[in-house]
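Subject: sequence -> structure tokens, single chain

Hey, anyone have a minute? Need the predicted structure for the following. Not urgent.
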Amino acid sequence: MRAFLISIVFLALGGCATGGTLAPEAPPAPTVNETPQALIIETPPVVEERVQLVPQVTALEGLNPKQVQAKLGEPSFVRRDANVQVMLFETKTCVFEVIFFEPTPGEHFTAAKINARTRKGVQTDVQQCLGHIIPGGAWLDGTQTIVAAAN
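Reply:
Had a minute. Here:
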């Protein structure tokens, strides 16, 4: 009986053999009900860079003391010696200094030199210090002469 079963298995397997090579299977045809895959595109994250608008220091050059006060507000210190006048505008981080000269006696003082220093007296960037004096980014008199400063 055992020999009989073995011969039946061989006969069954022998009928499956074609004697040649097998053809590759074709991919299944898409069906009508199939929906396309969504296309996913990755974009880099948006990095928001904050830029502070700061009035330009050069807009103060040549102005008289009254015009400078209209732009910067009340100075924390004023000193006048003969034909020189000095105004200081101070914050917690810096001192902004505007020096006026009177070209000839009786003429208006004009802003001729602008300096900035830390509270400890070390010279610092004038434009950056002005940004601390005018934190809103605009002159107090409403005029616009601004430059972008990185934070």
